[in-house]
Write a structure and sequence with these properties.
The structure is a homodimer of 368-residue chains.
Chain A (H helix, E strand, L loop, with lengths): L1 E5 H11 L14 E6 L4 E6 L3 E7 L2 E4 L1 E6 H10 L4 E6 L4 E6 L2 E6 L16 E6 H9 L16 E16 L3 E21 H10 L7 E6 L3 E6 L2 E6 L18 E6 H11 L11 E6 L2 E7 L3 E8 L1 E4 L2 E5 L1 H9 L5 E6 L6 E4 L5 E5 L8
Antiparallel strand pairs in A: 1-5, 1-7, 2-3, 2-6, 3-4, 4-15, 7-8, 8-9, 10-13, 11-12, 12-24, 13-14, 14-15, 16-20, 16-22, 17-18, 17-21, 18-19, 22-23, 23-24
Helix pairs in contact in A: 1-2, 3-4, 5-6
Chain lengths: 368, 368
């Protein structure tokens, strides 16, 4: 085969394909990317057997063919080339010549037939969402996905479509993050669990542009994202997701409105004093129009006051500062509403329309 | 004691002082910075027993005194404060209150008397050099300092002043880097070995501004850098530096002129193919008006041609690509001159006036 591509086009595509290349694997073929120029276009294909990516590169096919080549090395070579045309040639023995201006690399490729090709999936059920919204909703929920593989379902996010509402949920046993997005069109109900790893990689590939559309296709076992010249295919996590509705109580004894940025910075400072969060959580004392935030550890102690608007009872409650910060950081509103029940019940940070709900469990502490 | 400083002034000074704070030490007091407000000004002092820093912070002394406080935690607290005045108060039991707007931190300090104060040094012999030149000359030589502590002298750089010439030399057994700077004034002869670690830290503190002056003071055992409101004191390395003059031969069989950037990029690409540099060095074949650069390993092979201007014999010679790149990267000239003798003798990259000389030993290889 022989193809000619522009260096920067090729580099963009390889960088996308690299997201599904295995780095720790006992199967060397999974460290490869397939360059497939058999069907009138040039495709890069990668597959770590959880996630698969196909992306089309602009270029000229001089002689059709396909080959597998070590992905990271290939990417490094292209990256270091001058900004010019790259000619890629391989023969029937998989000897590969990559040439740019006066620079010539010879590498040993492998047969693309040894590479696990992506399964063909039925593209029946699908939704459309903007690139921006998808990238945002992942950022706003991915932090509370569990990384504990012993509970597989917690390592994924629930994608739930009903009518024109797209709901995304993640939880890790200490907190729940929920985001709702209004879609342009209405769809049949869908409820699947998407691996957190897939969403992390997708978020890195998405450009975040408002006016670009991503098509998401669903099958029993797979989810497929299609945008620009790229297709990302992932397995779904099998099983039933948690029934979160019963954890979301509308009751509260205390409602507090506070400046988001001020609260975030204050908790960030307080977290400097915390060595062991279970022994020394951050303590929030909501009293009248004042929030006193304090923490106490072997390192030292910290105290800070914030102005709040409060309705309902005073309350003293302890939290892991990281969990509060993770939620506050992804809320764009200038002020946030916090709903509290008692020092042992979860707090809710949510807006009026419940486009976001962040539930966080408190930590018990000894009143000093 | 009580002092009041602006947050950003305080942060700048702590960031400087942090450069001489021990991170791995069995003496907890060395993880501290001393805040000394006993002599009408506010000084931050740090000392890891190799390197010592004193820097003055602008601010108001409400009540004189001194205290030692954990440096990293102190810096983190100041960094996370809003941009406002910081009030620092400590009592006779070393209880310390750090306050900024509504935020209050309580930390346990330590007696400044437990801290190893910097030795007083005689400030007799000194030179003046611009901040820019000092920062540059360190960058242009520091990479060939050895990190092998078993040969202490190689871990330092030679600072040699004779008349108005300031010469800096580093070597690691495989290469020598030499830079010469013309000073504004003339001085008595000085020849000392400065620890590479000291120079790395100094380079990070220096601003690199052309019109700022650094005073360097020399004693038998110490070197002291004085600039802005900061003083950096370091031990010297004891012993005799290598006599490098006898390694610098003016004889050559081949002189080559080549575009610096092109050569650098070409070697950078070639280095992708190298797994074990002693078995597979980069091979340079200087032939007529052409340099063929090639390398060959289990990964694959690479070949590239460059235009050169050559006088003298053709030559085939192997190198560690990193050593060539380290030197080429810090040369600002558009073209460089390379002087070669034979495939077993070092090459020299130097300019006509010898303001820089980079000597690099070749690597033997089997001609394939």
């Amino acid at each position: 085969m022989q193809i000619i591509c522009n260096k920067s086009d090729l580099l963009n595509s390889i960088n996308i394909a690299l997201r599904a290349v295995s780095t720790k694997t006992t199967l060397p073929i999974l460290e490869c990317v397939v360059i497939d120029a058999t069907n009138g276009m040039i495709k890069l294909i990668s597959n770590d057997q959880e996630l698969g990516i196909e992306t089309i590169v602009k270029g000229t096919i001089v002689e059709p063919g396909a080959i597998a080549i070590e992905a990271k090395l290939f990417a490094d070579i292209i990256r270091k080339f001058p900004d010019s045309d790259v000619t890629f040639t391989s023969d029937e023995n998989f000897m590969t010549l990559i040439q740019c201006e006066k620079s010539k690399f010879n590498l040993m490729g492998r047969s693309h037939e040894d590479f696990p090709m992506l399964p063909k999936v039925e593209m029946n059920q699908s939704i459309k969402i903007s690139d921006y919204s998808l990238k945002e909703v992942i950022r706003q929920t991915i932090f509370s996905v569990s990384d504990n593989e012993s509970n597989k379902i917690m390592t994924g996010e629930l994608f739930e479509i009903s009518g024109d509402t797209f709901k995304v949920v993640s939880l890790d046993g200490h907190r729940i993050s929920i985001r709702k997005i209004q879609l342009h069109d209405s769809y049949d109900n869908i409820r699947v669990i998407v691996p957190g790893k897939t969403l992390n990689e997708i978020a890195k590939i998405l450009s975040g542009e408002m006016d670009k559309i991503v098509n998401i296709y669903f099958t029993d076992k797979h989810i497929l994202f299609s945008f620009d010249d790229t297709t990302v295919l992932s397995r779904l996590i099998e099983g039933e997701y948690y029934k979160i509705e019963q954890m979301l109580s509308a009751n509260y004894e205390t409602k507090v409105t506070v400046n988001n940025k001020e609260l975030l910075n204050c908790i960030d400072r307080a977290s400097l004093m915390i060595k062991d969060v279970d022994k020394n959580p951050i303590i929030l004392n909501f009293e009248n129009e004042n929030l006193e935030l304090k923490t106490n550890s072997t390192v030292g102690s910290m105290k800070e006051d914030l102005d709040i608007i409060k309705s309902g009872k005073d309350i003293l409650i302890g939290f892991n500062p990281k969990f509060l910060m993770d939620a506050l950081r992804v809320i764009d509103d200038e002020t946030v509403d916090i709903y509290l029940f008692n020092p042992k019940a979860p707090c809710f940070i949510k807006d009026k329309d419940e486009t976001y709900i962040y539930l966080i469990l408190p930590i018990n502490f000894n009143v000093a």
